[in-house]
Structures are given as C-alpha cells and as structure tokens.
Amino acid sequence: MDFRACLRFLTVLGLSAACLAGASAQTPKLPEKVPAPKVHAPPAGNIPPEHLGDTPVPEARPGDEASGAEKAKKPAEDKKPAGEPVTPATAPLPTEPPPAAKPKMQADPRSEEKPLSPMPAAELACRWRLRDLGVAFEDRPAEADEAGCSMPYPVSVRGLGKDVALEPAALMNCATAEAAARFARDIIAPAAKREFGTGLKSVTHASAYVCRPRNGTTKLSEHAFGNALDISRFSLADGKTVDVILRPEETEARFLGAVRKAACGPFKTVLGPGNADHDTHFHLDLAPRRNGGTVCE
Ligand SMILES: [Zn+2]
Fold it and tell me: Which pTM was predicted?
C-alpha cells in the first residue's frame, strides 16, 4: 500500500502516524520546482478588522485596487462594470495645474498710505471746495488691496455740480472729484452751449476706482488709486447724448475734440479714441509726474 492509500485508510482510525513508518520506507515523488506562495499585500492602512468602521478609510485613488477595508464595506453589486477601462496602478495620479501666480505689481509709494484720523487738513480743505462747487458726494471707508491698490480717503460722487449728475455714482479720491467738477463747469458745459446751444445734464463714466494694473503691464493703473475717471458719454439738457467714439459726426466731433483738448492741463493724462484701449471713452487722470508734465494723446 502506498503512502496516500495508507493515509486515507488509517485517518479514519486516528492512526495516521503509522503511515510515517511506511512513508520513510517509500519516499513520495515531489515536483522538482515548487511554486512560491503568493504573498498578499496587507490592506491599506493595515487596519485590524475589528476596528473597521470606526476609522475613516481614505478613498481609493483612481486605478487602485479597492483596499481590504473597502472590500469589506462594499456590497458585491458595487463592483465596476466589466469592460470599463482600468488605469494601471503605476499610472501617475492626475494632478491639478498649479494656480497661476499673481503677477507682482511694481512698487508705488501710494500703496503704503494708510488712513489717518482725523483726516489730514489737505483732504478736509478739498471737501470744502467740493461743497463750494456743488458736488454731491459722501465720504467712504478707505480702500486697500494686497496688490497695492490704495485710496485712504475716498469719496462717492453722484453729481459734479448743482445741475450735473455723474452716472452711475463713482468712487474716487477727492482731488479727482474736484478736477472733474471744475472740468464739467469750465469746459464741458461751455462746449455744449457753444456746439449744441444747450446745457450739460450728466456725465456717464465707464470706471473710476478699480484695483487693476495698466493694460498689459505690472504697473498699477491710476484707477487703482482712485486718481482717474473714464468718461464715455455726455448727456445734454435737451435730451441729446454724445458718446465718446472713434468717428463721431461733425458737430459732435468738434465738441469732443474741444473737450479732449481742454482736458489736457487740468488732467495730467488724457487718452481717447485713436489710442489703444480708449476708443470708447476719455481716460482722465491726475498721475503725479516729474516737472508737472502731461501725457495727452
Ligand atoms: Zn481709464
């Protein structure tokens, strides 16, 4: 009787040890190569089964085999449908593109100005002049931004004079409000009377305080200091409107040309149609310049 037959026979009787004697006499044939036992990876996190459920289990990464813990929790029907492509476990994980770094703005000393209390005398004096000019305005809290935009003493302006509205109300510094009010009274209103025989009712702006750089640069715009006003339309007392455009008709062209020319001086920068990015408005600002120069294009 060979070893296996002996074992089957005697196991029933609990006498399998007796086979060993026979086995030693008759060595069984073993395969020359024995396959190495498969080693299973421990479950993710090596969580003992008794602790499953009270420990949060991280979500499987795409392409990963479900961890042992997840297998234990997942119902059988939750398996991926056959045929769905499986990403190899070694594939790189999808990564989010890094957030675009904000371009660093060129330094401007005005960025460091912080509001003082009480307000400096020059700011108070400016407000008295606004009242004399009939400007409708209110003080507003300081504006500041990590990019360097700053306006320590803003005013919200809704009228440039007794009978001249600013639409919509706009946030700017007091000096810009004063320059705009004088410009409306001394230049725009007389030009409207001369060309159209009627008064100025309102000025429409496209922007005033805006925290942004100059187009295509890392230099902060004068708008970032509330030091600029973009005018896009003039509305007259008789209901006529004159838009700032590249090719106005003759009378409007004369009116717009006169206004634009006279703005240079009271404002330090005057840009308008024909200049890049300014075909639909006059950009007027009080940029501080060495030697009191102006840029009018
Ligand atoms: Zn502008």
Answer: 0.67
Number of domains in the chain: 1
Task: For residue 99, tell me if it sits in a domain.
Answer: no
Distance 219 CA to ligand 1 centre (A): 14
Pairing of strands 143-144, 136-139: unpaired
CA of 115 to the centre of ligand 1 (A): 24
Q: Is residue 226 part of a domain?
A: yes
Question: Is pLDDT of 64 > 90?
Answer: no
What's the rounded mean pLDDT across residues 237-254?
Answer: 98
Residues 6, 26: Cα–Cα separation, whole Å: 12
Task: State the residue range of the domain holding 212.
Answer: 117-296
Condensed to tens digits (0 to 9), the pLDDT of residues 71-104 reads 333 344 344 444 444 444 555 555 666 666 667 8
Closest CA to 181 of 133, 124, 223: 133
CA 34 – ligand 1 centroid, Å: 83
